[in-house]
# Entry
Amino acid sequence: MFVRVAIPIPSAKTFTYAVPETFVPVAAVGKRVVVPFGRKRMTGWIIEIPAEAACDQTVKEILDLPDPEPLFSSEDLVLYGWISRYYLYPLGMVLAEILPGGTATRPKREKWIGIQAEIPVGIKLTQKQSALVTLLREKGDLPFSGLENRFREAAFLRTLEAKGIVRLREKELFRGPGPAPEIGRNGNDIILNGAQAEALDEIRARLTSGRFSPSLLHGVTGSGKTEVYLRAVDEVLRNGGGAIYLVPEIALTAQLLSRVQSRFPEREIAVIHSGIARSTRYDQWKRIRSGEINLVVGARSALFAPVRNLRLIVVDEEHDPSYKQDDRLRYNARDLALVRGKAAGALVILGSATPGIQTFFRTKGGAYRLLRLPFRVDNRPLPRVEVVDMKTERDEQGRTPLLSRALIAALGETLAQQKQTLLFLNRRGFHTFLFCPDCGHVFTCPSCDLSLTHHAAMGVLKCHHCDFTSKPPTICPTCRGNHVRSQGAGTERVEEEVRKFFPEARIARMDSDTTSRKGETERILRSLDRREIDILVGTQMITKGHDFPDITLVGVLAADASMNIPDFRAAERTFQLLTQVSGRGGLGDQPGRVVIQTFNPNHYAIRRAQQHDYVGFYEDELPLRRELGYPPFSRLIGLHFSSLKKEEGKKAVAEIGKRAREMAGTIAGGKADVIGPAESPLARLRGRYRWQMLLRGKESRPLHLLAEKLMEGAERNGLEIRVDVDPVHFM
Ligand code: ADP
Ligand code: ZN
# Structure
């Protein structure tokens, strides 16, 4: 017997091994095998058992076969193969990414003791023996860990077993997610409003049809989308189907889990995300595969859960860039939900208050069904949004302050009412752009229309698409003002500044510094829920789905920051961020209020966010995309190169750029544009120099062909290369 094995190495090859006699009865597709590979041992996966090995006698034998059950089926493998081809990532490494326990994780077993159904008559028991028998009669089977020490002696138990009184056995220990922390409310006994009922009717009809059908649930913040998802899940579970429910952030899974658990108290629910221990993931995987668990919630990696009879995939906040994984396998779980839903003939519900431009575009052509929840529940008003023009704000020294007068006043009022405030600092890590605080002018690339990155150390402005470079001017070309400067203030500075004005307020901070500590995000959210925090200052993290009724004020500092990232989706991201963070306010009985600070009060992304007008934003944005040939009017593949050596790397990248342009005409049949290569916004990272290049075209096939060929070239040049297909952003 021979098997075909995928091994996690950076090569598309798979390998044939012989199966020794002892393993022949247990060998199956989907099981792991330990194999000799070169001079090493590696763990791979059986992907095929060929009827006859079309190979010579030199194949080596597998060394071990640890899995009692397969981790995947041949049908699952079809999806994995698709992922490997689409994302240009070797199958073995795709499996290592998706499947639990890259290294063989054996399930933990636990010893149990129970009383025999028929105890032989006429046996005399010691006092200790009869004490244990009584206990087991009362309690039923018990794990050893549940016994008093005096009962746990091996000799004592063996005697009882030999007499035929008890039976000892081993059971697999299930390591589940544990109890969910209680954050937020659960909302049982809700009566759906008209819009919700209509959406649910449509969803029911689609579930009954049993066909793949993607739907977009476009509902404003607080319109009751979650309620609709939960009813759809309920419908599926009651009919014996399985469901996957995705949220974009691990931090949101806790709140979701407690809501889902209180909704389905009798159900076991699996939670999957990258923060879950490997052994737990392995256990859950097995129990999902066996059909014991039918409902999976989690972040992006939960999409791969081997749910039986999958009928429904919910992708909440479908626009969120966190669905995209940005290292190793650079997949987007939102996109893969559609691929998987199609393969399974399942309903996919994409939900958002601010759907991706691409998503909404698809509803126009009828590819996705549009379901709308246009109002907040209970007719609660959307928050009133005030836009502050920071060009007119000056402190005593004549500088632009962090906090405007309007925001300070609103903070004071909110504190006095004992309500809570979110202060959102819109900031994108390393990207600093140059702008004029007098007129709001931002320095952009003449050919790409994207903001230039300011490299203060080198004293240059640079375009990270096409490599255009210029000297940073000191005078603004628009207003002739001489205050040109780069953006940047961290959450710490904001906290300090707020403290200056409101020394009594209880202020907390939530950004990548504070939340990198384990459990910290949940701790902060819980104190916010218990109203131990008056003002929460944070970055992107605080804009997402949390539901706290006592937040009545939302302040947005530097609304422009996300507008000036070098990405064609900058305006879209800004509109989404502003709308989402505004939506955190006024979810309770008190109406919410939002103050947005900006240097560009007339920018359409800001104006449309102020008016809560998604469709208006879409209509402003789409013509620009069409004109510049960006998605949804094209597809993109990003190629990222890195090298330890600057000059050699640069030469090799330039060479690839040249080849790309030649091959665009030949291999891609003129159906691909090459943009770049250019230095990456982070030109040097962990000692490596970095460049990037974009392939753009109407169809994906020619782009894939071209990317594949270019990757081969890169390997020969000693460059490291990663590929990003349909990238959500370039950083
Ligand atoms: P979304 O997901 O759109 O932000 P949710 O489903 O979380 O909205 O609903 C917001 C709040 O309103 C929740 O507390 C929820 O329990 C409640 N809710 C949802 N639907 C209704 C309804 N029909 N009537 C009253 N309250 C509702
Ligand atoms: Zn440019």
Remarks:
- The domain at 2-98 is CATH 3.40.1440.60 (GIY-YIG endonuclease).
- The first strand starts at residue 2 and ends at 6.
- The first helix runs from residue 74 to 86.
- Residues 277 and 591 are 41 Å apart (CA to CA).
